[in-house]
Structure formats: C-alpha cells, structure tokens
Specification:
The chain is mainly α. Helix content is 90%, strand content 0%. It is built from two helices and no strands. Helix 1 runs antiparallel to helix 2. The longest helix has 79 residues. The radius of gyration is 38 Å and the shape is rod-shaped.
Length: 173
C-alpha cells in the first residue's frame, strides 16, 4: 500500500515536472523567436537606410546630368553665333533644369517610399517577435497551473484510494 502511494506521488510529480519543462521550452522558443525577429528587423532598417542612400546618389546624378546638358547647350549656342542669351536657348535651358530637378526628386521619392515600406516591415517583424515571446511567457505560466493541478489531482486520487471510510450501512440497520 505504501509502495503504491509512493508510485502515485512520483507519477504525479513526474507529470508536473514534464509540464513545467514544456512551459520552459515554450518560453525559450518565444525568446529565440523574439531575438530572430529583432535581428531581421535590424536588417530591414539597414536596407531602408541603404534605399535612401541609393536614391540620394541617384538624385545627385540626375542633377549632374541636367547641369552637364545645360552646359553643352550653352556652349553650342555660343559657338553657333546665336548667343547663350537667345530666348530659345534660355527656354531649353529652363526645361532641362526643370526636368533634371523633377527626375532628381522622383529618385528621392522612390527611395523614401521603399525605405518606409522596409521600416513598416521591421515594425511588423518586431510585433511578431513580441507576440511569440508573450505566447512563450503565457505557456510557461500555464504550465505551472497545469502542474499544480496534476499534483492536486494525484493527491486527491491517492486520498480516495487509500483513505477508505468504513461503511456503516452493512448490518446495522
């Protein structure tokens, strides 16, 4: 009888320990998922910064091309004898400058748009990591409650099995 009680108690304790170990594993998995999400989010932010830098270089190149084209226009106008202040040359120069500025600003817009998308992705990645961590923490907490229930249930079963109350209904009637 004592041996059976000990085995029952050991079984309940082993089951509770397994439940707690499962909760610890869930927490560790949540922490790892959070760390992985943070790493990925940092990479996405770095890509956003790179997108901005590339677009800035592109914008500078568009402005440089416009300046070079205007310079060629001025040189050809002066060489042809029409003069650099000819209304047609001035109009063309203005159009070239306007177009190159438009192209430069469009390059900046494309880079900023891509960067914001990457930053939004980084925020979502961090949120997923936070959710995974919260899930792991909740599972760990739940494992303690479950383990407690297992132990209490085992104790109740042992009490019911080994603490028989004599029945007075037989023969005393």
């Amino acid at each position: 009888m004592i041996f059976s009680m000990v085995l029952g108690a050991l079984g309940a304790a082993a089951s509770a320990a397994g439940t707690i170990a499962g909760g610890n594993a869930a927490l560790a998995a949540g922490q790892q998922a959070k760390a992985a999400a943070e790493f990925k989010a940092k990479q996405e932010e770095q890509a956003a910064n790179e997108a901005r830098a590339v677009s800035q270089r592109g914008a500078l190149e568009k402005r440089r091309e416009g300046t070079l084209l205007n310079s060629k226009l001025q040189a050809r106008a002066a060489a042809s004898g029409g003069g650099a202040d000819d209304p047609t040359v001035v109009n063309l120069g203005g159009n070239i400058a306007g177009r190159s500025e438009y192209d430069a600003l469009f390059e900046m817009y494309k880079g900023e748009n891509r960067a914001r998308g990457l930053e939004d992705t980084a925020v979502a990645t961090r949120m997923a990591g936070d959710a995974a961590l919260a899930e792991g923490e909740m599972k760990k907490s739940a494992s303690w409650y479950s383990a407690g229930g297992t132990i209490i249930g085992g104790m109740g079963s042992m009490y019911k099995t080994y603490n028989k109350v004599p029945s007075y209904s037989s023969g005393y009637g």
